[in-house]
Specification:
Gyrase A, domain 2; globular; alpha+beta; four-stranded antiparallel sheet; homotetramer; 4 strands
Chain lengths: ~100, ~100, ~100, ~100
């Protein structure tokens, strides 16, 4: 079954439960700042392992202690349930 | 001693020895594509360890099997010898 | 369905196709030496991502450029097909 | 200057300040259990980056959510100040 793009209303409803995430340029977006590079990259490694397991990969941007994550589903042409699931998982890693 | 911004001529001379790197928007720039996400993130982990050792961190962008690296030295207001050294080290990791 | 322990004959047959692996103390065993620590840990990160995806984790031992991997399936009380699959995947990462 | 092996008294004095570490078979030893494999390997990646920066590498053992670290200095034939420094750094990562 194809992954479907979520409606604007569905995304806004989900964001209410997803602390730290917004929609920027049509993608789920979160920025995090860590103590230092070591902490930032330790987090990114956790994101990497979790993403591969979900077969869904974030756009990752990192410089020093700052990380920016953008989630979208190419096959759906926008934000899908898979992005919400990954964002939820990432929040668990940050908790 | 302060890290100095290199002249355009010095950068162009160095690029001749740095396979795969160009200057984009005033930063040393290289893009790499890997077999898959696992290979890409294995490479990024190596870049992370090497960068922290050199106390100089790349701007890292990754999505799935694609990696984009941008190097600049904030304290120098441009590309410095530290960027050339890191680019050289990264090429060793890719060899 | 439970994961079953493989017979000695099945394991020996599989080892013929698994370059670098032997059975040591009842576990699939492989040792690898890398150029340096950076290369060794880059490899381990790939093993980590692949293992989590397969829901099956190696016993990992590392010091500097040396890595030792041991595979067994606790639920089966010995070596199972899951260990052979992970060993095969690890060989792909080393190729 | 050579790295020197610390006296038993010096090690015992230092252990008083190093929560979680003991001496096992002549090495500084600590075991940690994490929520799951993802958390354990995120921690190990931080240890890897910090170790390479200090040019001093732990013996790392990991299976699933469990990590065991052993520190010794080959050149000193025992536990040296470098092991204490790395143990201290690792405790910072765990804090």
């Amino acid at each position: 079954m194809a992954v479907e793009k979520l409606s604007e209303a569905a995304i806004q409803g989900a964001l209410a439960e997803l602390a730290g995430w917004t929609v920027v340029e049509g993608k789920l977006h979160r920025e995090c700042t860590f103590r230092d590079f070591v902490a930032a990259f330790g987090f990114l490694t956790q994101v990497a392992i979790a993403s591969e397991k979900m077969d869904h990969h974030a756009e990752i941007y990192n410089v020093y202690n700052r990380v920016r994550l953008d989630l979208t589903t190419h096959d759906a042409g926008g934000i899908s349930q898979r992005d919400l699931d990954l964002a939820q998982k990432i929040n668990t890693l940050l908790a």
